[in-house]
Design a protein that fits this description.
This protein is of the alpha+beta class. It folds into 2 domains: about 5-135, 2-Layer Sandwich (Ribosomal Protein S5, domain 2); about 140-255, lpxc deacetylase, domain 2 (lpxc deacetylase, domain 1, 2-Layer Sandwich). The protein is about 20% helix and about 35% strand. It has 6 helices and 21 strands. A 6-stranded mixed β-sheet has the order 5-4-9-3-2-10, covered by helices on one side. The protein has a 5-stranded mixed β-sheet with strand order 13-14-20-15-16, with helices on one face. It has a 3-stranded antiparallel β-sheet with strand order 6-7-8. It starts with 6 loop residues before the first strand and ends with a strand.
Length: about 300
């Protein structure tokens, strides 16, 4: 082996079935992570079809079953589709697992009571190095911090040179517990586990009420509980609608936005060096569009 080089990782064996609940149907489902060979990248398997994880396969997804209040990322293959994949992709990407087959029993993320913590533990216990070197992308020298915006909108994604790999997110939501929040995350396995992994998924609840969560008849977000979801009410609420405070306090909102962007960066199929991504008030649809624009414009060079 070559000294002082990073090598690609996979897992030594398949994980057990990790069961949960389909957020849109309420039915039980599961995920299994399988090893993959070097340079295979991340692949999502649905009903026997392998869907490569890449920007060209990704799209923004909203389900009528959640009254279009929940937003996620979808991956489309030739016959099958996987939905709500951003968190499934964030975990292996953040843990530097380059090559995996991610089997989804029904094509949807299995919501669990502990969020993604259990999945991360299963993967870390099996992580092994391969003999192939990991290759990185970095912003091209001499570029003046290219950025993508939308006319008349506040969404913005900028990329610039840095002394490491950073994700910087500026959020704003007109809720008294959110308002303007900023977080700069230095990308690392340990940092992800300590700073980001415990951030609960965000659910916007109209009318400042939990009835869409608690009522058996009106339940819209299946499997969403206080320990795996951050409930945001109307603009006049002085606190989140959770009965438990969570791990991170007020800035849990922006930390979860970092979580989302990690899953989105996994769609590039590569890790980054000496590069900082600066997201401002963005969502899934814009992020996919902006990342495609940045990559297609040849803003990055490979090690």
């Amino acid at each position: 082996m070559i000294k002082n080089k990073d090598f690609q990782n996979t897992i030594s064996e398949s994980t057990p079935k990790i069961e949960g609940i389909n957020a849109f149907s309420g039915k039980r489902n599961y995920i299994v992570f399988h090893p993959a060979v070097a340079n295979a990248g991340l692949v999502v398997r649905v009903n026997g079809e392998n869907i490569p994880v890449k920007l060209s396969s990704a799209s923004h997804y909203k389900s009528w079953k959640s009254l279009r209040l929940a937003s996620s990322i979808s991956l489309k293959g030739e016959r099958q589709r996987a939905i709500e994949v951003e968190h499934i992709l964030a975990i292996p990407y953040a843990l530097h697992l380059d090559n995996l087959i991610i089997e989804l029993s029904d094509g949807s993320f299995p919501r669990q009571t502990d969020g993604m913590v259990g999945m991360a533990r299963e993967l870390l216990a099996r992580r092994v190095a391969l003999s192939e070197e990991r290759r990185y992308l970095r912003i091209r020298e001499g570029l003046k911090s290219p950025s993508i915006t939308r006319p008349g909108k506040q969404d913005k994604l900028q990329v610039k040179s840095a002394n490491d790999f950073y994700i910087d997110y500026s959020a704003f939501y007109p809720h008294k517990s959110v308002g303007k929040q900023e977080y700069r995350f230095r990308f690392s396995d340990e940092g992800f586990q300590n700073e980001i992994m415990g951030a609960r998924a965000i659910f916007f609840l109209p009318f400042g009420s939990r009835f869409m969560v608690d009522s058996p008849l009106l339940r819209t977000f299946h499997g969403a509980r206080d320990d795996n979801a951050l409930f945001v009410g109307n603009v006049n609420e002085t606190a989140f609608l959770n009965r438990s405070p969570g791990s991170y306090g007020r800035d849990e909102f922006v930390r979860h936005k970092i979580y989302d962007t990690i899953g989105e960066l996994a769609l590039t199929g590569r890790y980054f060096k000496d590069t900082e991504f600066v997201f401002e008030r963005t969502g899934h649809a814009f992020d996919i569009f902006a990342l495609r624009e940045l990559v297609n414009a040849n803003n990055f060079t490979s090690d």
